[in-house]
Fold each of these.
Amino acid sequence: MSAESDVNDHGEDAGAPRNFIRTMIDEDLEAGKYQGVVTRFPPEPNGYLHIGHAKSICLNFGLARDYDGRCHLRFDDTNPVKEDVEYVDSIQADVKWLGFDWGEHLFFASDYFERMYSWAESLIEKGLAYVDSQPAEVISAQRGELGKPGIESPHRARSVEENLDLFRRMRAGEFPEGSHVLRARADMTSPNMLMRDPLLYRIKHADHHRTGDAWCIYPMYDYAHCLEDAIEEITHSLCTLEFDNNRELYDWVLDAVGFARPRTEQTEFARLKLEYTVMSKRKLLRLVEEGHVSGWDDPRMPTIAGLRRRGYTPASIQSFCEMIGVAKSNSMVDIGKLEYSIRDDLNARSPRRFCVTEPLKVTVRNLPAGEVVDLDIEEWPSEIGKEGSRSVPFTRELYIERGDFALEPPKGWRRLTPGGEVRLRGAFFLRCEDVVLGEDGEVAELTCTYDVDTLGGKAPDGRKPDGTIHWVSAERGVPCELRLYDRLFTEAEPESDPERDFIEALNDESLVVRRGVIEPSVLGSEPGDRFQFERLGYFMVDLVDSAAGSLVFNRVVTLKDGWAKQVARASGEAPKKEKAPTRVKSERTKRRPERRSREDERVNARQESPELAARYARYKDELGVSEENADILSVDDEVAAFFEGAVAVHADAQSVANWVVNDLLRELKDRELSELAITPAGLGGLVGLLDAGE
Ligand code: ATP
Ligand code: MG
C-alpha cells in the first residue's frame, strides 16, 4: 500500500515558514534562555483528532524537527469521565499517519497524579490553597463579575491543619462529589476572573481509563497543565488564543509550587477555523452519535481519520498547515485552501483513468461487434514528467457521460449533440448519427460513427471537434460504486447563528452514491490506490468497503472548485457551467480566473491564441510557476499584467504567483483588480518582505 510513500521527507526544510513563534524561539535561544527546544502536543483523549489538531501537531512537531529539539505526545487525561482508550489509540495512529514521531516521549498526565497531589499539599502548607465546602453555585456567584470584585469564601481562612485534613479525606473518598473543592488562595479582586481563587481539585467518583479507581479527586486543567509542562521540561508551551487569560494562572501555579525561571512558558496562537465544517469535539460527537455521518472516519468529517479515509495524504495536510501559517488573530480559513493542497499533491501522484458516472450507451455503428481496438493511452499529462501508459479497449458499445450529450444544446455547448462530433479522449472523433428515445421521452442511447483516421485525436483534414469527452467500453468496462463526497454543510459558517442548531445546515447532498463504469485497467487496484478520473476529480479506492469483485471509489476532491457554481445556481443566477466559453483575446477582458473561467475554457483560449499559449509556457518554464497557477495567471491580461508587475519588484515568481492566486484573487471575489488598494509593485514588495521573514 502507498501509506509510506505519502509521508513527506522532513529532511529538507529549507523553506521553513517564518512566524512570530519562530522569531520568539530564535530570540530565546540567542539569549541563552533555553539549551534547546522542547514542545508538546497535549490532546485530551475524549475524541478523534481533527484538522485543527493537525495545525497544532504540524506546529509543535515541526518546531522540534527544525530546531533539533523534541516534541512530546502527552495525553492530558485529567478528566476520567469522557476519556477512553479508543481515543488514545486513534490519536497515536493519527499523529503517526501525519508523519510525526514522538520517539520515547509518550506521556500521560495521569502518571503525574501523585506528584500533583503532593504539590497541592505543599500549597496548602504555604497558605496558597484551601478547601472550600460551599456548593458550586455559591462559589460561582461569589466570584463576582468584570469590574466588580468577588466575595471571599468563609472557608478561605481555614487553618493549614484543617485544610490538610479535609484534602486528605477528599482523597480517601470520604465525601460525595460536589461537597468540597480545593481552591487556590489567589486574588478575589483580580481583574482576571480566572485568578479569583480558581478550583485546583474536585471530587469525582469515576474510574479512570488508566488509573482505575486509585483516585477520586482529579486536578483541574489550569493546575495540571502547567505542572505537566514543567515536569517534562517543556520550553515553549503553545496553545490556542482562548487560553490567553489562563497564562496568568499558569505562571501563578508554577511560582507557587516553586519552579524557578527559566522554565516553561505559554504562548498562544490562533486556532484553525475552517469553512463548511465544525470542529468542536462535542459537535463532531453529535454528528456521529445522531447518525448524520457513518462514524468518526466518515470521509466527510474534518477528522484526520475521515480525511485519510476520504483520500487525503499526510503531505497535503502538512502543506495546508504550512500554507495557512501561524498567527495571533483568529480567522476563518477558506476551505478552498485545503482542497487546493490535496489537488496539488494528487496531481503528481495519481495516474489518469476514465470513469463514467452516469452511463449513456453509445453504439459505434461502423465498428464490428466483437472487435476490440486496444489503445495505448498515456496515464500522465506531459507536465508531470512521468512515463507510463495503460491499455484501454475501444469497442462497438461504449458509455459516455449522460451529461456530455444534449438533445437541444445551450449556446456554446462543447460536447456531443445530434449530428455533432466530439473527440473521445485518447481515441477517435465520434459523430452522433441517431438518438434513440426511451418510452419516457428521455434519451436512451445513441448511435454514432467513429472516424478511423482520427486515432490519437487529430483529424488529417484539420477539422476541429466540438470538445473532448471521456468514455469507457461498455463490454470491457468494470462496474463500480462511486461515492461522490461534497461539503458537509451548505453554509460556510454553520455555527454563525447561535439561535439555530448547526445540524440544520447539513448538506443533504454531501454524499451521492452512483453506479459507474470504469476502464478495466483498474482491476487489481488496492484499497488506498488513487487515480484522477479525467474531467471528474481525484478518487481513492475505499480503505474499508472496497473488494476485488466490487470496487468502491471515494471522490477525494473535484478537479476545480465546483461549489461557487452550485451556490450561483441555487441563488438563481445562470449556472456558469453552461455559459458560452468566452474567447479570451489579447484585448482587455473582464473575465477573471478561478471563479470566473473554467479550466477547459482556459485551455480553449490558449488553443485559439498563440500569444496566450506562449505566455502560459513562459510562466511555467521560465518563471517556474506551477502549472495550475500559470494557467490561472496567464489567461487574463489584467491579471497577467498585475502578476508581472509584482515579479518585476520581487523576482521569486513562484511565491508571487501563490500570493496572487491564493490570496489576492480569492479576496477579490467579484471586484476588479483596479479596485484593490494594493499595486503590483506594492504586492511585490510585500511578498519580498514576507519571504524574508519580516
Ligand atoms: P475541544 O474544545 O473540541 O474539546 P480541544 O481544543 O480541547 O478541543 P484538545 O484535545 O485539548 O482539544 O486539543 C489538543 C491540542 O490541540 C491543544 O493544544 C489545542 O490547543 C490544539 N487544538 C485543538 N483544536 C485546535 C484548532 N482548531 N486549531 C489549532 N489547534 C487546536
Ligand atoms: Mg481541551
Amino acid sequence: MSRESELLVLAEAAKGFMPREEGLALFGHALELGARVPQGTWLEVGAWCGKSALYLGAAAEATSSVLYSLDHHHGSEENQEGWEHFDSALVDPADGRLNTLPTWQRTIAAAQLEASVVGLVGDSLIIARHFAQPLDLLFIDGGHALDVARADYAAWTPKVVPGGLLLIHDVFSDLADGGRAPYEIYVAALDSGQFVDVASEGSLRILERAH
Ligand code: SAH
Ligand code: MG
C-alpha cells in the first residue's frame, strides 16, 4: 500500500466527526495547495482526536509542509456530558474532565506523522495573539457557539496569505442541521471580499484568499 493510501485508511478509522468524502476533500485541496506552495505553514483550529489532522497531515507530509493542530483538548460545549457529542471514554478519571490529548497523540504517533503534524495545546485566542507566522492554509473547526466561531474567524483569518486556503467545517445554512455559526463565518468571509469560493464537499467549504 502506498504511504498516501495507508494514511487515508488510518484517517477513516480514526475517532471523530469527519465524513470520508469531506476528509478526502480536505486532503485533496491541501495537497493541491502544497504542490503549488510547498513547505507551507498550515493550522487547524479544533484537533479533537486527530482525525482531520491525519487527512491534512497526509498532504502536509507529501509537500514538506507543517500542520499545527490546535486544541485545548477539553472539548467544546457540544462535547460535554449531557450534550449530543459526549463520549464518556474521553473523560480523564483523574479530574473528571474531557481530555482528548492522549488520543490525539496516539493517533498522530500511530500514523508516524510527528514530523508533519505539531500539536498546539491551549486556547485558540491566546495562541492566535502570539502566533505571528503567516498561514498558507487555515482550517476552522473549533467551537461552534456563535461567539467562539466568530472569535476564531476574527483572530485567525487575517493570518492567511493571498493565494492561501481557508477551509471551514460544519457549514449548514439550515438551523435544523446543527448550529449556524460556521455558516455565519463562511458568509462573513465571502462578504469581506477577501475570500472567494473554490469548492465545497458536504458541510466543508473551501475558500481562497484573493488579496
Ligand atoms: N477537526 C476535528 C474536530 C474538532 S472538534 C476533526 O475533524 O477531527 C472541535 C474542537 O474544538 C474540540 O476538540 C474542542 O476542544 C476545540 N475547541 C473549542 N473551543 C476551543 C478554544 N477556544 N480553543 C481551543 N480549542 C477549542
Ligand atoms: Mg467538524
